[in-house]
Structures are given as structure tokens and as C-alpha cells.
Amino acid sequence: MDGMTSLPLVFDAPKRGLPPTHFADLDEAGRIAAVAELGLPKFRANQLAKQYYGRLTGDVTEMTDLPADKRDAVGEALFPTLMTPVRHVACDDESTRKTLWRLHDGTLLESVLMRYSDRTTLCISSQAGCGMACPFCATGQGGLDRNLSTAEIVDQVRAAARATRDGDLGDPGRLSNIVFMGMGEPLANYKRVVDAVRKITSPSPEGFGISQRHVTVSTVGLAPAIRRLADEGLSVTLAVSLHTPDDELRDTLVPVNTRWSVAEVLSAARYYADKTGRRVSIEYALIRDVNDQPWRADMLGEKLRRTLGSLAHVNLIPLNPTPGSEWDASPRHVQDEFVRRVREQGISCTVRDTRGQEIAAACGQLAADER
């Protein structure tokens, strides 16, 4: 595969319009200016922020502290409908729920909410589709529709936090973890993703108050953007989707590798770890007879030991095959041997708990089925 042909997609989404401005797109100054334009006093901006970020309300009809005669105008100006659920699909004894959303322009979007014994995690999307063209990924096979707005990212979190609070996945609880591992390459929508992270993690009424240390931003390896993220002053976890330690295979599995090699990606990851003091998660989808050879496990462990050392953690992901795909998960004994060899190099290595295989939880599968 010639990865160079898709490189412009790393930074540029197709020219499709973003949704109308939403309350979640605005900072404090923007919120104050917006309510002033509606003829409302300054304190209404803080009041609306408490409703949206604190009470998880995105519907003005529920905002009973807002004058009734102003609600329609506020709703039209600041709370346009961003996402409409097409369907929810649940599994794992109702502890995993995948939602397919339709956006204002008909674009499809997915998010997955997962309840564990000690946490509730939301996997969110940062783009509709993806331009990275990784051949084993359902989203990559579908291509990139467009970047999401800040509010389209943030509202996925509000909806999930409300569902968790209201007990939609069992006992009422609190949304605690966010992973940018849904549709899209987060660092290809850099400014909006960083803005969304700040709103997700700021205390109410500026945001949802989720700990930065409980937010993970994943990337296929946009090295300059990794370094830029390191300088943002955030303490989120960086997850690098490496998938193989050698450039020859990675050029095929992750075509952007033709732009930034394994060595450049790991160097940027080391810079991130040094700047933030945070361990980097190395994501590795284990694919039968493709990247699961013992010598690749040895190479992976050795390269990580030399570049990141104790600041690396390998997260092995049993591949969730997509319909009609030539790719399949590695057998259990191969997986176990891979883990053993990586650990022999002194690198922490675990296998991700897979969720939702029976509901097409691999990113992009529901959207592909709906098209």
C-alpha cells in the first residue's frame, strides 16, 4: 500500500460544514457575550454552564431557572440539536452500550459506554470516519467524512454522564474515564480535541470535572502533534497505536508511518513522557500471522526498553474482526507467548479486556451497517 497518497488526510478533512455554534463550543467570555446578544444579564451565562456541565442538561425545557419566555431563544441560539440517537445496542449483561448517532448533516458517529466494577468508561469519537486508512480498522476502511466540532465531542460526554447518572447501565453512578479511541484520529483534529479535553476536565461550571489522569488520547503516531500535546500542560494519558515495531510492516498496517517512522514516533512519545511524567500506553492489536511473531515481541520489548523503559506499558488488543475482513485475532497461546516475551524485556504488558464483540463494537461497524 502506498501510504503517501493519503497523507493530506492527516490534517485536512473534507470540506463539509461544522454544526451551528453550541454552548459547549464557547469559553467563559464567549458565553457571556452570547447571553448579552440575547438581552440577558451576565449571570445567566454561569447559570447555563451549571445546567449543562453540572446538571448535564442540554434541553432548555428542563432549565427551569431560566425565564420561560427566554427559553426558546436560548435554545435556538445556544443549544441546537447536535446528535440524535439512531439506536443503542447493549451487551455484556447490559454493562456495555454502543450508540450510533446521526449528526445535523446526516453524518454518522459512534460512542461506547462501558461499566466496570470500579469505573465507568466512555470511548468517544473525534472525527466522523477516519483518514488514516489502517486496513484492519472498520473506521479506516470507510474513510473520513469530517472533523467533529468541540461541542460534538463534548456532548458525547454529557450524554454518557447523564446516562450513567440515571442508571441506564445498571445502578446509578458517575462517568469516570474518557478514552479518545472511537472513530477518527484525535490529533488530526488537534485544536478541537484539546479544547474538548479542557472542557471535559475543568471543574463545574467550566466543565464536567473528570480527572485529566482518567482521560486517554490515542494516536496512530502523528509525531509533531504528540510533541505539541506534551507542551499543553495537560496530564492526560497518551496512547500510541503502534501495532508493530518494524517500519516495513507498519508502512502497511499504519500508512502514516511512511511520514513518521517507528523511531520518530517513539522519540515523540519519550518527549511526552518526560514533559508530563506520565507513562505512555503502547497499543498493539494482535493479528494472526501478521504481527504476532515471537521475534516481533522481542523487537517490541527491546525498542521500548531503549526508548521509554519503565515509562512504557504495552496494551495488547485481541483483534475484533470486521465482517468480510481477512484479518483475525491471534490464538490464545500465541498471545500468551507474546506477552511473556515483552515482559522478559522488562516492559509492562497486559491484554485489554475486550467488550462488545457481539454488538459490532469495533469502531465504525455500526456506521458501516447503517449506510
UniProtKB/TrEMBL annotation:
Q: Name one GO biological process term.
A: rRNA base methylation
Q: Which residues form the active site?
A: E110, C363
State if NAD is listed as a keyword.
no
Where is it mainly found?
cytoplasm
Against Pfam families, the record matches this protein to:
Radical_SAM (PF04055)
Q: Which UniProt keywords apply?
A: 4Fe-4S, Cytoplasm, Disulfide bond, Iron, Iron-sulfur, Metal-binding, Methyltransferase, rRNA processing, S-adenosyl-L-methionine, Transferase, tRNA processing
Listed under catalytic activity are:
adenosine(37) in tRNA + 2 reduced [2Fe-2S]-[ferredoxin] + 2 S-adenosyl-L-methionine = 2-methyladenosine(37) in tRNA + 5'-deoxyadenosine + L-methionine + 2 oxidized [2Fe-2S]-[ferredoxin] + S-adenosyl-L-homocysteine; adenosine(2503) in 23S rRNA + 2 reduced [2Fe-2S]-[ferredoxin] + 2 S-adenosyl-L-methionine = 2-methyladenosine(2503) in 23S rRNA + 5'-deoxyadenosine + L-methionine + 2 oxidized [2Fe-2S]-[ferredoxin] + S-adenosyl-L-homocysteine
Known SUPFAM superfamilies for this protein?
Radical SAM enzymes
In this chain the Radical SAM core domain maps to 116-352
The entry's free-text remark on the cofactor is: Binds 1 [4Fe-4S] cluster. The cluster is coordinated with 3 cysteines and an exchangeable S-adenosyl-L-methionine.
The protein's GO terms of the molecular function aspect are: 4 iron, 4 sulfur cluster binding; metal ion binding; rRNA (adenine(2503)-C2-)-methyltransferase activity; rRNA binding; tRNA (adenine(37)-C2)-methyltransferase activity; tRNA binding
Alphabetical GO CC annotations of the entry are: cytoplasm
Segments crossing the lipid bilayer? none
Give the location in the cell.
Answer: Cytoplasm
**Additional info?**
Reaction proceeds by a ping-pong mechanism involving intermediate methylation of a conserved cysteine residue.
Which NCBIfam families does the UniProt record give?
rRNA_mod_RlmN (TIGR00048)
**Briefly, what is this protein's role?**
Specifically methylates position 2 of adenine 2503 in 23S rRNA and position 2 of adenine 37 in tRNAs.
The family line of this record is: Belongs to the radical SAM superfamily. RlmN family.
This protein is called Probable dual-specificity RNA methyltransferase RlmN
For this protein's source organism, the top of the classification is: Bacteria, Bacillati, Actinomycetota, Actinomycetes, Mycobacteriales
